[in-house]
Amino acid sequence: MAVYYNQYMKKLIFVVFLLLFSNALFAEQVDERVSEIESVWMEVDETEKDEARTYHFLQLVKDITAVVLDFPAHAEPLILKSAILLTMAQDASNFSALGLVNQAKDLLQKAVGINPKASEGSALVTLGVLYYKVPAWPIAFGDNDKAEEYLLAALKINPVGIDSNYYYAEFLLEQGEKDKAVAYLNKAIAVKIEKNDPELRIKLKEQAKARITLEKMS
User: Fold this and answer.
1) By CB atoms within 10 Å of each CB, which of 91, 106, 176, 185 scores lowest?
2) Where are the domains of the chain?
């Protein structure tokens, strides 16, 4: 079980990093405070697991919660808070990790209720991944039908996104729908990379190419 959690947590963190840094636009004051917390979060995530790391994560949660309270009409602080909680889940025990994932899910759903288009639909994609990666009831809330619902909603908002197409393709592959999945992988590959795009978007596009090659060989 511990190995399983570690695998899906790493996948989720990759999704979160990719989606959060996809040219999200905030109101100026929100942007300044969220960006500052994002920067600290990224620095802390690079450190080794220890008591100081845990302390810094808890402080980040406190800081972003203050932003959430100051700007209740904005979805972006909720998305960042969910990302911090998911990062903390990497270090936690299985039971605690699941509790943090549940909290992150609730925040993402609240963010979608405020503005599903925030961060190019990142909350929807992340929810989709959560629902098809975590275990199903009675252990957790995993649900393939809900996963597909969120992923399709993300595609409706961002039909030409690398992330929205790639993760729906990945979901389809796990459901055994290879031909349909390949079509979405090709859409992810076809997205033009801009000069200032985050490196993770480039890596995800390369990952889509690798999956295409793998499926052709299988």
Assistant:
1) 176
2) 2-135, 159-218
CA neighbor of 37 nearest in space, from 55, 11, 22, 57: 57
Query: H or E stretch including 37?
Result: helix 28-45
Q: What is the pLDDT of residues 97-110, one digit of tens each?
A: 888 989 999 999 99
DSSP for residue 110: H
For residues 30 and 40, the answer to whether their CB atoms sit within 8 Å is no
Read off the pLDDT of residues 19-78 as tens digits, 9 standing for 90 and up.
555 544 444 456 677 778 877 877 887 777 778 888 988 999 999 999 999 989 999 889
| Spatial distance between the Cα atoms of 67 and 128, rounded to a whole number of angstroms | 25
Yes or no: is domain 2-135 CATH 1.25.40? yes
The predicted model scores a pTM of 0.84
Does residue 57 contact residue 44 with C-beta atoms inside 8 Å?
Answer: yes
Q: 165, 191 in Cβ contact below 8 A?
A: yes
**Both tokens assigned to 214:** 């793998």
The structure tokens 């275990």 sit at 135
Coil/strand/helix, residue 176? coil
Over residues 188-203, the pLDDT tens digits come to: 999 888 777 667 778 8
Taking the CA of residue 145 as centre, how many other CA atoms within 13 Å lie in the half-sphere pointing to its CB? 0
Q: Is the dihedral of CA 31, 34, 38, 40 positive or negative?
A: positive
